[in-house]
Amino acid sequence: MLDPLVIVFGLGVGVLIGLTGIGGGSLMTPLLILFAGVQPVVAIGTDLAYGAITKTVGGWRHLKKGTVDLGVSKWLAVGSMPGSLVGVWVADRYAHDAQDALLYVIAAVLLVVAVSILFRAMFLRKAIEREQHSVEMTTGRQATAVAIGAVLGFALGMTSVGSGALIGLALILVFRLTPHRVVGTDVFHAAILLWTAGIAHWIGGNVDFTLMGNILIGSLPGVWLGTHLIDKVPAEGLRPALGCVLLGSALGVFTKAGVDLPVWTIAGVPAIAGAVAYLLHRSRNRHPLPEGAPA
Fold it and tell me: Which residues, at least 6 apart from 176, have a Cβ–Cβ distance to it below 8 Å?
């Protein structure tokens, strides 16, 4: 049975995945919980299963475009694949008896992701100057990638959040890849990770295939469109906008878990954050930093 609302959700999230590598679990899981009334553990499992297919399409397109760092992807996967299986086990074992607790975890991870993205967009200007096209994977960097992958893979397996937002942030702050390589590497690695976690949730009976089909109808053309537009959309505006959307999602999921938040905060707080980001961006354009000045 076709669900137009879920198809539209899939289209919008697919475009964001193609453009930024972010948006799968970070947006689709709270959308399914808040607007489609899906149980958290089923929303997580279904999101991971559809995301595996969607990000495989996006990862293949990014690989052909040359925007994937295969070395970083490989070592992240060494840690993230087993980490995600542990996360799936925890979610499957405890989530059915602790739905509210799982909502709190999802909301908390979303909040961390949103604040991290907004902080970088607003205040880490000098990080852009240190970006590089590829990374030499020394022994230390390999170990760092495995550790990051294990921690974030666990978070993804338990909440479906993090394959794009958290790992993308690590690619920026730790490995200092350029934006296009961040997106390509993130999407390619996420495809590997999501197949692992998605199959594990399917075995655990947490995947709604009818719901997944509706999402895919929208998300597959969406991710194709997003990867096509990646060279045409400025990242300066897209990053803070996405951070604001994730912030609203986090507050919405907190209210679903029973937190008594004023209704206006769900839209008002992200709007205020967006306004601050916009004013900072305008101020920087008018008063650029002199060469060599500290950020």
Answer: 127, 130, 131, 132, 135
